[in-house]
Every structure is written in structure tokens, then in C-alpha cells.
Amino acid sequence: MRRKYGFVAAMLSVILLLSLGLTALYTGQEKGGKRAFKIVTSFFPMYVIAENIVGDAAQVSLENLSEPKTGCLHDYQLTPADMKLLSDADVFIVNGGGIESFLADVAAEYPKLQIISACGDIELLESGSEEGEHSHEEEGNAHAWMSVSRYMQLVDTVAGGLAAADTARAKLYNENAKAYRQRLLPLQKEMEALKENAGGGAVVSLHEAYAYVAQDMGLQVAYTLNLDEERQVSAGEVADVLAAIGENGVKFVLAEEIYGKEMGDMLLRETDVRVIYLDTLVRGDYEKNSYLDGMRENIRLLREAFVQ
Ligand SMILES: [Zn+2]
């Protein structure tokens, strides 16, 4: 028995020495100037923007925080893995507008980390939520990516930030951003064309994010019930929604399927509204076309509702 343990111990030592050696080799390579320019993004829409701007740039690594499993990023707590990811990042791309509540902590922990705030250059809509649990901590309605025209501005801001932080690749970043904008343009035009069909009336929104969709469609939001997470809806809130629908002649309700279905079903039973379930585009397959595909589907659903 003793001999067997001795063998195991020897093997473990060999493995340990080997891995130490490999680590040293790898670190050495990094120090040799081959280290990639490391970009970290805060969540899905930012990752997709960065993916399009980085394109096939060599020696650039792009990673995303681990993110919550459902809903938006509000109140998200960074994991130890996230902190490790940020510890050697060159640039951290965030949405801004207060949606990353951990941002002050990150800035304090890593003072040298360059933070690009995609919403930095735009004016956010006011937070329209009556009972928003986290909205009061935020600087407005941070879901600006839900407007195609504003999203194009976010792309510009991120490209500008990356070009300034990584001047060697500035030209490439700007060219890629321009190409991406070209691909977004048809969606913006479709939205513009749909305005006519939308009829300019009032809507009720069951998620703050849709205020941007409503604005793109020339619609007024009569009432917002922010069902951004699993929570109890009070009888008073239900009454407010029904009153808003009645008083404003609301024909359309914009909702998210995960949290808004129950309320949506109730409204279908109690009123004559049409409920349009849209993607808030906070989750997806992290492909370059994810935003384009998701927004295209949203536009299809809007057209289906408006053009009858
Ligand atoms: Zn949200």
C-alpha cells in the first residue's frame, strides 16, 4: 500500500511541475508583446455591438460578463469570475444610464480600466415606470438599444471609444461600424414606414424598454407597468392599466412574454386591446446578426398588428 501511495505522490508532483512549467511558458508569451487587446462587455446588446465593430481584427479578445439568466441587467451583482475577467481587461463596454449598478465599484477597483458608456452621448427618455423598483437609482430609461435610431448612435459611440483606446485598429473599428450602420439602416426605414400604419395613438407598455419602440413608431405611452421581473401586480395597478386603456382609447399593448403574459391574457379577456409581445433583446445567441434578427422579428410583429 505504501508503495502505491508513493507512486501517486510522485505522479502528482510531475503533473504539478508540468503545469507550473506550462503556466510560466504561457505567461512569458504574454509578456512578449503578443498579448491581445482585451475587451469586456457588460451584457448581450453591448456584446453584439462590440462583435460587429471588432469584426475579424487580429489579436483582439472579446468577452462578456456572466449576466443574469433572465430579464435585464438591473441589480446584477458581479461574480468573482466577472471581477477576474475585468482585472486584466483593457476596455469595458457598458450600456450606461445606470443599468450597470456595479459600475462605481468596478471603477474604484480598477482605476486604469477604460470604460466606454454606449449611452454616454444620447439623451435618454425619462423613466416612465410608476412602480419601478430600481428605476429610481437610474438616470432615466436606460433601454435605448430598443430604438433602432438610438442603437445606431450607441454603435457610433462604442466605435469612437474603441478607436480612441486602441488607435492601431481605429481605422478598422470605424469601417466596421460604418458597415454595421449600413445594415441597420433598412430597419430604421421600415420603422419609419410603419409609423403611418401605427396611427399615432396611445399604447400601454408592460415593460419600460418599449417606450423606445413606441417613440420610433410615433406612439404615445399612456401608461407603463414595468414587469421587468417576477413580482406581484397589485389590484391598484390592474385598475390603473384598465383605466389608462379606457381613457386613452388604447388599442395596442406592448409586452414581454416572460413577465407580461399573465397580464396580457387578462387584458385580452377584459378589453378589446391587441397585445404585441416583443423581444427586449437582452438575450440571444450572441451572434453578429443577433440584434438585426431580433429587431427584424419585432418589426414583423408590429407590422402584423398595425397593418390589417
Ligand atoms: Zn430593463
Q: How is this structure best described in words?
A:
With 308 residues, this protein is α/β, with parallel strands linked by helices. The chain has 3 domains: 1-34; 35-185, Rossmann fold; 194-306, Rossmann fold (3-Layer(aba) Sandwich). It is built from 10 helices and 8 strands. It has helices at residues 2-34, 44-54, 80-87, 103-109, 148-165, 170-198, 210-216, 235-248, 257-270, 290-306, and strands spanning 37-41, 60-64, 91-94, 114-117, 202-205, 220-224, 252-255, 274-277. Strands 2-1-3-4 form a 4-stranded parallel beta sheet, with helices on one face. Helix 6 runs parallel beside helix 10. The chain is globular and about 65 Å long. Mean pLDDT is 89; it is low at 21-32 and 131-136. Zinc ion (ZN) is lined by residues 72, 74, 143, 209, 228.
How would you concisely characterize the structure shown here?
The protein has 308 residues and is α/β, with parallel strands linked by helices.
By secondary-structure content and strand pairing, the structural class works out as alpha/beta
Fraction in helix: 40-55%
Count of distinct structural domains: 3
Distance from first to last alpha carbon: 82 Å
CATH class category of the largest domain: Alpha Beta
With strands numbered from the N-terminus, the spatial order across the biggest sheet is 2-1-3-4
Q: Averaging pLDDT over every residue, what do you get? A: 89
Ligands present: zinc ion
CATH topology of the largest domain: Rossmann fold
CATH superfamily of the largest domain: Nitrogenase molybdenum iron protein domain
Order of helices and strands: HEHEHEHEHHEHEHEHEH
Stretches where pLDDT falls below 50 for ≥5 residues? 21-32, 131-136
Q: β content, as a range?
A: 5-15%
